[in-house]
């Protein structure tokens, strides 16, 4: 429709030899197209579909194996690495530096992270390596000493206090035969089973859960505590654990002022969140599509500066997953490099990061915020193509990716780096112009120059792969 109109317009212009002023683009779409053509140095090839292709959604059986069925907390580590990035085990040195931090920082305030799917790894059980300042033993009102972690029967997450299976009494039990993924290309001719990399760790994977809070159940006092946790970025602790996140829990019993409290349960927290420490890692699903969105269509477009074309106003991954008879889009939001109200699947991106609309996030923007954890959420959907996850500016204008027309969003391979703020996309992805004009190469994003203009995340789950 749009295209036809434009062609008619051009034909008219030729026939009557009108001035530049009269052939100047009129509608917002036409202005956008003209500016986009200036970006790519020509017209958009009619076959360019902007990388959006149907996915085969993941399916699991009741044991958590791929294909069919429902999984609860996905305890079956033998399959993980086939579809999600599994964090490596922590070294003893890493665990020690984290423990030491929690034992020397009292009444700390942490950060929030927002993930529906995430890994939990054991770091430390309070009382195993106490210090003079931080004995991890508590004197109850009855005068006896109790090791706090011994009273923390279950580790939980979310306000519904969902049990993180195999994390009990301050420990995380060992899981053998974990799948970490496949060996790389050199082994490609071998049977897939021979290529699987396996290992063991004190780890579990939570699916469709929440990081809003972490807590513990104390069966001695029949009490759930969701208010004695803190989440600390590893960047605050030590270089060796940068790009990670740790949850610390402080033990507190039922206070003697509370109904039903016994003297042997009357224990007050000491402000050290070292009674149980775990690492949490976002569940990054493999084979997702990464979407780059550009909100320029909602600008005046009278004058478009080339540096406006950074396509980082929203950067998010989409992976479709069946859970029983329900299909979900698992969305991982990485960046919000704009200052307009922008929604992905109806959720405002700055708000998801816990920031105001005017704050640019994870794009190295002047006055922006960097190094925030990605946000992972799920939406129920009938779609199997990331193009159908709606991206809207100011709740009204839906960004489009129409085959053969100037686009407002595009899909690239999972893991593709996005532009820093106000860095032009063609400056680092030199094949992009060619792709747009000739529909080739479709994997234009694999050719990278000028790495310095790309945003680099320090999230450790990526680090171990490189
Ligand atoms: Ca404590
Ligand atoms: Ca931007």
Number of strands: 23
- How many helices? The count is 9
Low-confidence stretches: 1-18
Largest sheet: 5 strands, antiparallel
What fraction strand? 15-25%
The termini sit apart by: 46 Å
Q: What is the domain total for the residues?
A: 2
Relative helix content: 10-25%
- Mean pLDDT across residues: 89
| Protein structure class | alpha+beta
User: Which value, in Å, is the CA radius of gyration?
Assistant: 26 Å
Main β-sheet, spatial strand arrangement? 9-1-14-13-12
The backbone outline, from C-alpha atoms, is elongated
The distinct ligands, each listed once, are:
calcium ion
Oligomeric state of shown chains: single chain
Give a nutshell description of this structure.
The protein contains 9 helices and 23 strands. The protein is α+β, with helices and mostly antiparallel strands. The strands form 6 sheets. Strands 9-1-14-13-12 form a 5-stranded antiparallel beta sheet.
Description:
This protein is an alpha+beta fold. It has 2 domains: 28-55 and 287-460, no CATH class; 68-182 and 192-282, no CATH class. The chain contains 9 helices and 23 strands. The strands form 6 sheets. A 5-stranded antiparallel β-sheet has the order 9-1-14-13-12. A 5-stranded antiparallel β-sheet has the order 6-5-4-10-11, with no helix packed on it. A hairpin with a 2-residue loop joins strand 18 (342-344) and strand 19 (347-348). The chain starts with a helix and ends with a helix. One calcium ion binds next to loops. The site of one calcium ion (CA) has 8 residues, from loops.
